Amino acid sequence: MHLCCFKKNGGEVPAIHFENRIYPISELFRVLERSDQMVGYSTTEQILSIARDPSLMASLLGAVPRSKGLGERDIEYGVPIRGPVIGVGRNYQDHVGEGKLTLGDYPKLFFKHVNSLTAHNQKVTIPPTIQKTDWEAELGVVIGKRMFQVKEEDAIDYVAGFLNINDVSAREYQFDLGPAQTSFAKSMDGFCPCGPWLVTADEVPDCQNLRVRCELNGEVVQDANTSNMIYSVAYILSYISQFMTLEPGYMVSTGTPQGIGHFRDPPRYLDDGDVIEVSVDRLGSLRNQFIRV
Q1: Average pLDDT, the chain
Q2: Which run of H or E residues covers position 109?
Q3: Residues 182, 171: Cα–Cα separation, whole Å
Q4: Residue 10, pLDDT score
Q5: What is the helix (H) or strand (E) element at residue 28, kind and residue range?
Q6: Which residues in 23-48 are b (16+ Cβ under 10 Å) and which e?
Q7: Residue 290 — left, alpha, or beta (φ > 0 → left; ψ -120 to 50 → alpha)?
Q8: Which domains does the chain have, with CATH numbers?
Q9: Rounded distance between C-alpha atoms, residue 279 and residue 287, angstroms
Q10: In the structure, what pLDDT confidence band is assigned to residue 99 with cuts at 50, 70 and 90?
Q11: Is the pTM of this model over 0.90?
């Protein structure tokens, strides 16, 4: 199932995306002649509750043919999940190689703050003093239930679903200034586009065999597969859970492959009017334009 939300009257409405149309959850409950059991829940809580309940997902999908829905062009997408984001650096060997980076014995972690989250088709404003804004296409993983000290072989059972993430980075603060300020470089407003939907885990049978692509103004700049990760999704989740509790709604951005702008010769950075499109197999496409004001 594709779970999403759209903006309406200053708020966000949780919905299902199905065959290029958007079906509000509240409308589907009316079709089913059931009271909306999620009144009072936040959008993120509603989406996660549905993602964790296969029976409810089946009921809601069954109501779709009897619902009119909305065209995608008629809505403005919101951020499907609003939670803390834990990033993983240096998790593809080709990316480590292109930057001549060192590789440790464990995942390299950083954090992106919730103010960095932005939705599909939203414009991302580059701060006036930042000249080295860069892209990173990544597979995002959303936690569905509380996770603490979980074994690697059990880790995927805690996943609610997956989404596209663009781990936008201000490279000045990551590489030019010492010591590195990686979390700050990646937490500027709008620097974590994600979506357009949360695709539930049942629709992604093998998260270690997904194509990851990134296009800059229509030019392919990244093209890889999650099979090339150094640390698997299950390993990453298990590793983090040994030290901190992962709560429902937490997101893990699992690293980017070769092809970022900073390590090109000459380097390439985002500027006014540039469009980045991130697409991971089965997860749709995430598109954002970057602007300066």
Answers
A1: 96
A2: strand 108-112
A3: 9
A4: 94
A5: helix 25-31
A6: bbbebbbebeeeeeebeeeebbebbb
A7: beta
A8: 2-74 (no CATH), 85-291 (3.90.850.10)
A9: 9
A10: confident
A11: yes
